[in-house]
Design goal:
The chain contains 9 helices and 7 strands. The chain is an alpha+beta fold. Helix 2 packs across helix 3.
Length: 234
């Protein structure tokens, strides 16, 4: 009898992607973008892989997904929701942003917002729903970007498992790199459903935090002007 060695099972897409990231000695934390390490067709493979594992979670929760018409396709729906919507910012490249020279040498305070943002807390994967305001003090060398691009960049950062304190810093770093202003201010106010749904079950509390860079740190009058103009209200 001839001993035939069975072919090795193909690696799951998640394992291939993880190994590429590790070979490059890069991070793959929950709020990191890993799109550079994903090859064509692998997102579809990930969808099937995540669907299978979510089906196992439902089975371990003793939910009958075979005869319950409400949950027969839940694993597929949830997998698609995570990969293509809620966590999309992990798996797709940064949206294209056209930058324009500051031809008129604008150097006055500019404010964009409120921008509605949605994310998921990386501790419990519960929703975060909030608003962001951006203040900019451009200089003659700044790159100006279209109004809608602030929302697109914020959404790209926020559509990952996040904590608010790190998310707002990521947004500030990205905008500083893109616009190169003399000053930047970002304020975020958000509801955290990990407090609404579980734990203390407090549905009134919000979290507000800010990041100030450049002139907004050194110029108290500029900082006060920005904060007075955005006038955060419930």
């Amino acid at each position: 009898m001839t001993d035939k060695t069975l072919p090795a099972a193909p690696q799951p897409a998640s394992q291939r992607i993880r190994e590429r990231i590790q070979r490059a000695q890069q991070r793959f934390h929950a709020n990191d973008n890993i799109s550079a390490f994903i090859e064509a067709g692998e997102l579809d493979e990930l969808l099937g892989e995540v669907e299978g594992k979510l089906r196992g979670v439902l089975e371990s929760l003793v939910i009958d997904t075979q005869s319950d018409h409400n949950t027969q396709d839940t694993a597929r729906r949830v997998a698609k929701m995570y990969l293509t919507e809620i966590f999309r910012g992990r798996y797709v490249a940064q949206p294209p942003v056209t930058e324009f020279p500051n031809a008129e040498h604008l150097n006055e305070l500019m404010i964009v917002g409120p921008i509605t943002v949605r994310s998921a807390c990386s501790h419990h994967l519960c929703p975060i729903m909030g608003r962001i305001w951006v203040g900019l003090l451009p200089n003659e060398h700044s790159n100006l970007i279209g109004l809608s691009k602030y929302a697109r960049l914020a959404e790209w950062i926020m559509s990952r498992p996040q904590i608010q304190e790190e998310a707002i810093t990521q947004i500030a770093n990205l905008l500083m790199d893109k616009v190169q202003p003399d000053g930047l201010a970002v304020v975020m106010e958000a509801d955290h459903f990990c407090m609404h749904w579980r734990g203390v079950k407090d549905n009134q509390s919000k979290m507000t935090n800010s990041v100030m860079r450049g002139a907004f740190l050194t110029n108290a009058s500029l900082r006060r002007e920005f904060l007075s103009l955005i006038q955060i209200k419930s």
